[in-house]
Amino acid sequence: MEAVRVTLCGSLISYCSFILLGAPFIAERQIVIETAAMSLWTGALLGIPLTLVLKTFHLDTWHRIFTSTSWQSKTERAAGLYAWATIFTMWISAIIIPLDWDVWYQRWPIPVFVGSLLGAFVGGIAAAVSLQFPGKWVKIA
Q1: Cα 19 → chain centroid
Q2: H helix runs in the chain, sequence order
Q3: What phi, psi does 58 have (nearest 5°)?
Q4: Which residues contact 112 (CB under 8 A, 6 or more apart)?
Q5: Torsion angle (degrees, nearest 10) of CA 100, 103, 107, 113
Q6: Closest Cα to residue 111, out of 46, 22, 44?
Q7: What is the 3-state secondary structure (H, E, C) of 89-106?
Q8: How far apart are CA 60 and CA 111, in angstroms?
Q9: Crossing angle of helices 110-132/29-54, nearest 10°?
Q10: How far does the chain reach from its first CA to its final CA, in angstroms?
Q11: Contact (CB, 8 A) for 70 and 45
């Protein structure tokens, strides 16, 4: 049940973030539906794994994961690496949207969707490596 609540909250936050970062807000109905679907995907991609790993809905923990790198445990570090890799690659992948190539993969939200998959993959690998080899490459406060 917590994963559903986190997914819905994350979807609302990501929808607002997409709009503030330039996603179409008042446009064709199809584009508004695509933005809502992308925000639901983002909420699920970040919310479900992080809820299962962190096993908590304490706002302090979630605030620490998303706003700093002063994580307090190995699982927080793994969750933070996963979340930040996913968010960063989604943001970077949006670079190709305004280019004037007029190809199908430039349409919103295709680049951001592909970036989210790539980021989740890279973040998952980084999280697994950080759990397996808990060296000093990321400091735990």
Answers
A1: 15
A2: 2-20, 29-54, 59-67, 74-93, 110-132
A3: -70, 130
A4: 38, 90, 93, 94
A5: -120
A6: 22
A7: HHHHHHHHCCCCCCCHHH
A8: 32
A9: 10
A10: 30
A11: no
Q: Are 30 and 79 in contact (CB under 8 A)?
A: no
Which DSSP state fits 133?
Answer: S
42: three-class secondary structure by DSSP: helix
pLDDT tens sequence for the chain (141 residues): 788 888 999 999 999 999 999 888 788 889 899 999 999 999 999 999 999 888 877 888 888 888 887 888 888 889 999 999 999 999 999 999 988 888 998 999 999 999 999 999 999 999 999 888 876 555 555
Place of tokens 């503030």: 20
Residue 60 in tokens: 């302090």
- For residues 50 and 46, give the distance between their C-alpha atoms in angstroms, rounded to a whole number: 6
Handedness of CA 127, 132, 138, 141 (dihedral sign): positive
Report residue 56: phi and psi, to 5°: -150, 160
